[in-house]
Specification:
3-stranded antiparallel beta sheet; WNK_Ser-Thr_kinase; 323 residues; Phosphorylase Kinase, domain 1; Transferase(Phosphotransferase), domain 1; disordered C terminus; globular; single chain; 2 domains; ATP binding
């Protein structure tokens, strides 16, 4: 029996049966562009209803997300809606590059401070672009930052959670303290960025001293920095991170950080990745905790460091953060 080929309405993009992952009500498959031969990502966003106000809101959010065009943000190529089956289809560029997580925790690569500075200067530029367009990312994770090792060019994933119109609460070591109170904005992006930079420089997982979800929540509610922060020796990097980890009320916006000395190191292009077979990384046992409240049968989840809740954030009651 032949498998039927699934294509977009224009006939340009075709879906393969290669499942990548599933998260935030989205299922990701590999696909390809029949015009160029390039790989693409085929995303199916599933919702309970595509009627009336819900459909209008999703369409508005899709148009807003499609308008995000920046060289360091993966682009949406096309979208369409299947109202009968309650599916929104989204085709994006394929991230044919190594993830930053792969590079940071590989025993074969090292990165110097100038390379790290250049990478994150590009990410801050992308986050500033979102800020200047009155939006934010909300999902800056180290395994969704993609690096082309032959050019050093870097891209971040698109913020698909905006399409759903609500934010899923995930407790992980990326979680900004204000997320516990139902708040997520451009300053939250800054916190997540700081956590990723800390992990990139040290090659260790921030907040690894926390042995349980409650340990992590207590530290976040008290605005306590990860112990790893105090291992940073570079003065510019440490000052930059201290800005990222300020309490939400006084934390800078992405555009405020763009001219920080840590991001102003020489930007000349060079071999960004140095192979170093003798380099020994930390154990692959990441000592993580994971409770998947949203788990569905046979659902594949790439993020194994999070506690997922299906509820909307404003309904969660948490004590006031200590500033």
């Amino acid at each position: 029996m032949k498998n039927s080929t699934i294509v977009d309405p224009s006939g340009r993009y075709k879906k393969t049966n290669e499942l990548i992952t599933a998260k935030n009500h989205c299922v990701y498959f590999n696909g390809y562009d029949t015009y160029s031969g390039n790989m693409v990502i085929w995303i199916e966003f599933r919702t309970n209803s595509l009627e009336g106000n819900t459909l209008a809101k999703i369409m508005d959010n899709i148009e807003c997300t499609k308008s995000i065009k920046h060289s360091c943000i993966i682009q949406i190529l096309t979208t369409w809606i299947d109202q009968k089956n309650h599916i929104v289809y989204i085709i994006t560029e394929s991230a044919t590059a190594k993830t930053l997580f792969n590079l940071v925790h590989s025993p074969y690569y090292t990165m110097n401070t100038r390379v790290i500075s250049r990478w994150f200067a590009e990410i801050v530029d992308a986050l500033s672009f979102l800020e200047n367009n009155s939006t934010f990312h909300g999902e800056i994770f180290i395994d969704e930052i993609y690096v082309k090792t032959n050019t050093g060019h870097i891209k971040i994933g698109i913020p698909l959670h905006h399409i759903a119109g609500k934010t899923n609460f995930k407790l992980s070591y990326y979680t900004p303290p204000e997320n516990l109170l139902g708040l997520c904005d451009a300053q939250s992006d800054v916190w997540m960025l700081g956590i990723i930079i800390l992990e990139t420089i040290t090659r260790k997982k921030p907040y690894s001293e926390c042995k349980s979800p409650s340990d992590l929540m207590n530290k976040l509610m008290k605005n306590e920095l990860p112990k790893l922060f105090y291992e940073i020796n570079d003065s510019n990097a440490k000052d930059f991170l201290s800005q990222c980890f300020l309490p939400h009320a006084i934390r800078p916006m992405p555009s405020d950080l763009a001219r920080h000395p840590f991001l102003q190191m020489p930007k000349r292009r060079e071999s960004s990745i140095i192979e170093s077979p003798s380099f020994i990384t930390q154990s692959k046992d990441r000592n993580v905790f994971f409770y998947d409240i949203l788990a569905e049968p046979n659902r594949q989840i790439r993020d194994t460091d999070s506690i997922h809740f299906s509820t909307s954030l404003p309904g969660i009651l948490m004590p006031t953060l200590k500033h």
